[in-house]
Amino acid sequence: MKKLLTSLLCVMMVVCFMPAMAWADGEDSGINTAEALSAAINGEDEVVEVVLGGDFEVTESITIPTGKTVTLDLNGHSITGKLGANNPLIDTKGSLIIKDSNSEGKIVSDQYGISASQGGTITVESGIINSKYACLTSNNTTGRGNFTIKGGTLTSELSEAIYMPAQGDLLMTGGTLNGGISARMGNITIEGGTINAMTGTTDSIEDYYNYSGSVWLGDAIFVMAGTYTFDGGNACNINITGGTINGVSKSGIGIYNIYTNQEQDVNVTITGGEINGGTSQPAVKVYDDEEVFGADSNVSSTEEPDTTIVVTGGTFSDDSAKDYVPASTTVIRGEDGKYVLAPAADSEAQIGNVGYATLEAAVEAANANDTITLLKDVELESELVLDKAIVLDGANHKITYKGTTPADHLLELLASATVKNVTLDSNNTAKGVNTYASDKTLKITFENVTMVNSAGNGLTAKGGEVTLKKVSISDSAWTQSVDISSSSELSNGATLKIDDQCTFGDAIAIVIDKPSENEVAAAEPLDANKLKITSSDETKQWNADEEAYTKRIFTITKVTSTPSTGGYVPTTPATQKPVIEPNADVTTSLSTDGTTLTIKANDGYEITDVTVN
Prior knowledge:
- The protein is built from 5 helices and 54 strands.
- It is mostly beta strands.
């Protein structure tokens, strides 16, 4: 009985949470009239999946009510809108998802395509939307409108493909827009897909600078700034990380600060993607009154939008992005004719293609998981701190401390960072390198690093896991290459892991000061088949001005390679099997491993001497 009840309950739950499927009279025919579509949308279910079963026309706008989530599967069929002036085929106040489970499914409108109002959300996963005016649109007087483009093709016959005069979010990860994007405000994020500008007749900014509706300027993405207000703010933020943006006859991205009469923040950030202007047109451009109308024109703005464009990546059809790159970065023409960012000649370091005048500036600008690459040898006037999970790649350059007063350390690491391919020279003034991991899970790695001339230990490891791969440490004032320790602020000591390519040139290779206070500190090989690490405690007066105390000194034995100086114990030589000369007077046998030779005299003989050559 329990099994039966459980099964029945499971079936009931599946029924409760499955979206309602909307079909016409025939179970497999799907929706094939405007009336059936409206009835399915306006039924009692809040979540509805509509599958088309035929082509049909719509003469009045269909509304997705607030609170409804409708998935419209075109299923290879078409909805054709023959509507009154300026009406959308569908107005979405709830949530609408458009997809096409077969090919060539279409929404065709002789006016606007689909509008989002009162916070409505439209998602296009696949399918085709063709319209006379904007395929997707919102309205400044009817609330927010939100759009997500994952796939499909949206084509406007006369205007932009997407019009955003109100606040809202637009995310594009795939698909194709033919007609571009026109915005007065909102948050626009382009991660993928293709945006092609208008191909038809465009409006002249000189004629339409003060027009309050949709202006067809023709840039692939353009903003008419400082013209509208909105409840909750009118900021416009554009973030481009990928995708392809093609200006056909105008700019790839155009910001028009023309005849502005409202305060507005316009922020454009470009970190990736391909941005192309039309023939002889810039990839990225900000236009103002004087540039468009001339210095003597009567057209002027009463408010100046705060426009910021920052370019840190991407490829461009010309060098127009040079006006918006960070200092110490330039734009160069590549072999393929495209323009890309590159560090300026005076840069010390780079992140991606962005140059930085100093290594310190690069560290400050870096985000988690970024790689900072040195472009030249660097001199530091003060301690450099890495407090982010980044990679510092020295590219075989050298970092030298050149401060006039002693520093705590040349380099201090406070996060799970990696330092590689660099020489760190403390210049007998800074106290080498220090790792300080307040979190036991932090992992710090040094790879192909040389540390020299420390005024203290070569490396002091406090807390966390510190890994050394092909690290060389020498010429440390305290004659200790690595000191593993904890501190009063740390509850965990460091675990030091080393490989067989590390060399330590100081009298003491690895040490734990006062091991009774640092019981959790340890040293171990990365590969026990190549290294053996042992330790012993020694108590004495190490410094004349200190009382005697104990140090735990580690001995490193290379198992498979020739020993080096500075703390390495020679490897035990391999056993060589002797060659036994045959003799009729004795019987000899050699153990399999070659370590034991047995000699037995035959009857009538005794062994008086054994000679080993």
